[in-house]
Amino acid sequence: ISFSLLFISLWTADGFLNSAVARCEFNSTELKDIELIFSYYYNKLEHLRYSSSLDKFVGYTELGVKNAERFNKDTSYLAQVRGAKERYCQHNIGIWYNNILSKSAMPYVRLRSVTPPGGKHVAMLVCSVFDFYPKHIKVFWLRDGQEVTSDVTSTDELADADWYYQIHSHLEYTPRSGEKISCVVEHASLKQPLVTDWDPSMPESERNKIAIGASGLILGLILSLAGFIYYKTKARG
Fold first, then answer.
1. pLDDT less than 70: residues of the chain
2. Which intervals hold domain Ig-like (predicted)?
3. Residue 124's domain is classified under what CATH number?
């Protein structure tokens, strides 16, 4: 995995546009894993570039070639450009790693049964994994402890536009009596795989009804207790 930091400067005059882009390509905070690239553009055409991996300027137009030769002979200017790799790239990359890239968010899993679109199997399970970061994740199925390698389809990691991601894995199967089916998630935020077992004993709609009913019962008991305490307090007064 690699990332980029961009620094852009623009100059305009009489309808012409000059721009310079400094780009830091990196996959760690170590200097050896960072490449600094300075690109110079005239009216969107790149005419000159410095790359720290080449440690020199390269021209792409007649003017760019002349400037590259001039800059490469200027040892003090080359030293200044080399130093930018540490001053700008490594410094800002460290900030990114400490505040963003090293952070992670644990996923939560929802396992449900849906009607299959048709085919050789009569049942389908969907394992939906939400709100995880970073992007890379592994989702797979276990059936009686063995990984399922067929009749499984998954979406790509889908960005939620808030730094978090979601992914959905589908398993088509024919139920067997007494079997155990699990959705397993492996992610950088987890110390060990997150295993969610499927309970086929009750449809999801019925489980939701029971959950709502239980919540209503608990709320009713709380209100009744509050009313009883209020009544006793008023009676004593």
1. 1-16, 29, 100-102, 202-221, 223-237
2. 107-196
3. 2.60.40.10
